[in-house]
Amino acid sequence: RGAVPATQRSSWTSFLKSIASFSGDLSSLTAPPFILSPTSLTEFPAYWCERPDLFSAIADAKTDEDRSLAVLKWFISTLKDQYTSRNESMGSEKKPLNPVLGELFYGHWPDKNGRGKTNLLVEQVSHHPPITAYYISNPSKGLSLQGHNAQKTSFSGGSIIVRQVGHAVLTVLLPSGDKEEFLITLPRLRIDGLWYGSPYIELTDTSYIQSSTGWLSTIEYKGKGYFSGKSHSFKAVLSAPDGALADTIEGTWHTTSKNVLTGAPFHDVTGLKEEATVVDVEQQGEWESRQLWRAVAKGIREGDFETASREKSKIENEQRQRRKDEVTAGTKWELKHFVHIDNDPTYENLGKLFKANPPTEDAYIFQHNPPFGELGLETGAVKPGA
Ligand code: 0T9
């Protein structure tokens, strides 16, 4: 149990017991200090774009097949950042701060080498269960990614099993004026290494990227002992609109992969990622994640867990009071940037093509509304060259 500090052993054991006997919203359980991260889940959508050149390259592909390959390459290249970056920066997976309703996170990646500027906007649209909605856009390239994330968790064989609920839709405005959409579903996660106090994620099962042109990527995830025998392995198959197999890619998503048919290298994430540019915390509004969690994060970073937990309670109490006041006043919290719809037509229509399970999902639609503009972030995707 090497990674658990001696003084936190019993508290880690009881935390694991509470996970094992609990199913539902893990984010609300109190965990021992050594496993706490100073970062809120509202920052996580930034992982979609920490390789902004690969995102922008989607717009430069010339054929439907090449565009689907570019989307697959970008998607696979996000996985290392999404699922292993806490291990790299903090030594293991950690428990993120549990966002409050209305929490916001804004950022961007600057224009460099003609790749265009990429904007990131995130809003916490539900607290219990936690649901995070995001909109990422590169207007000069005609690209936008809209999605939301929630999790359903259970415990099995000593690991936490996380089914991701939600999906993303990537929209590409083509030079012809046509619009191509990609429905992106999300892999399942297994959180291993809990007993030793050094949790890490393995991806399992299958996820899909379905284009409105009919091209489909089917991505299978395996850990140690399958395909290549290595952890973080995947195999992706690209099929044409008529179902014919066009390409097979194999490798490990946190390093490199290659095209099995041609032997050509496919993705490579051994190089550096690029974190989003975010305004200094001093200049952030009170609902912006780093400002909102400032005192808690400072406590966690400095090992002052008394302050961290006192500041966390303050935020939680303030939230509880807010919800009570709304009930008394008969009002409802208004989302700032998104509108909820019960049935996403893009999910339903594209999902049919690969028999998505579930067959329908809800979505949060970005409203292209202020103060998006005031933040110096361009609204919406515009036609390339327009
Ligand atoms: C969307 C991602 C998601 C969010 C996190 C499961 C998890 C919350 C959700 C799925 C992102 O695109 C990708 C990466 C990591 C996921 C988190 C890993 C994790 O452990 C947490 C859960 C809620 C816990 O904090 C479990 C308890 C903890 C002690 C284990 C480290």
SSE topology sketch:
Blueprint: H1 9-20, E1 36-40, H2 52-57, H3 64-90, E2 95-97, E3 104-109, E4 118-126, E5 131-138, E6 143-156, E7 159-165, E8 168-173, E9 179-184, E10 188-192, E11 200-211, E12 216-222, E13 233-239, E14 245-252, E15 256-259, E16 265-268, H4 289-292, H5 294-302, H6 305-329, E17 338-341, H7 345-353, E18 363-366
Helix pairs in contact: 5-6
Bound molecules: ligand 0T9.
Account of the protein in words:
- The protein is α+β, with helices and mostly antiparallel strands.
- The chain contains seven helices and 18 strands.
- The protein has helices at 9-20, 52-57, 64-90, 289-292, 294-302, 305-329, 345-353, and strands spanning 36-40, 95-97, 104-109, 118-126, 131-138, 143-156, 159-165, 168-173, 179-184, 188-192, 200-211, 216-222, 233-239, 245-252, 256-259, 265-268, 338-341, 363-366.
- A six-stranded antiparallel β-barrel has the order 6-7-10-11-9-8. It has a two-stranded parallel ribbon with strand order 1-2.
- Strand 13 (233-239) and strand 14 form a beta hairpin.
- The N and C termini lie far apart (59 Å).
- The model is unreliable at 373-386 (pLDDT under 50).
- Ligand 0T9 binds next to helix 3, strand 2, strand 6 and strand 7.
